[in-house]
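Section 5.1 Outputs to date
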Amino acid sequence: MNCVRFLSVTVFICFFILILAGSADKAEAQRTGIGFSGGMNVSSHLNNFRFAGDDFELDFAPEAKVGFQGGFIYRAPLTQHLRFQAEPSAILLGATYDDTFTLRGFDFQSVSETQLLYVQLPLLMQLTTVPSEEIVFGRPRARTTFHMTGGVFGGYLLDAQFSGHNSGAPIGIEFQGSFSNDVLDQYSEFDGGVILGAGLERGANYKVGFETRVIFSVISSGDQPEINFNPHNMGVTFGLYFLL
């Protein structure tokens, strides 16, 4: 992983944590919230994975891949039913491939995958239900609310790996081999797109929630225009979160 990328992301996360810490004392008075989230995702690309070498060219159809995501949450209410959330996070996206390619006139089978690690900043608006508050023995009773989420995200690529297993019989002899390549220069440093989702949460002073989202990159995540490589990240995320 590029050291400059790592340091820039570390500074960004530390800066955001300081902001959260500074607002924590005011959270109760302003009804803001801070917390953390984590979960898994299923992602792929809109278009084929393409790569050109000295004597071969790959053009693989993408399939789904399982990844993960995790990060922090900062919530600020705007009205009784509408709130804003910023969620600095890390997310692993990519795709899998089960396809063939030709090398020096011989056909090979490749079972492979791309792994793209991003630091991401979703900026979201949430529309939520607001059930009536109940007080039991002087304390607010836990309530269940439902919400819809919409917004945008920006992402910065930290690492990109292309790995897998090739097999074939180029001269009548079975061949099998594994590979792992850094393909950071194959992808754009920046990513951005839209998010739509829905979820529920339960609690009073402390809240636990679950949310499912659809993410789609509106800009191409590829960086090889000469071979028309325009993958576009897309995926579905499943996450749990805890909010103070």
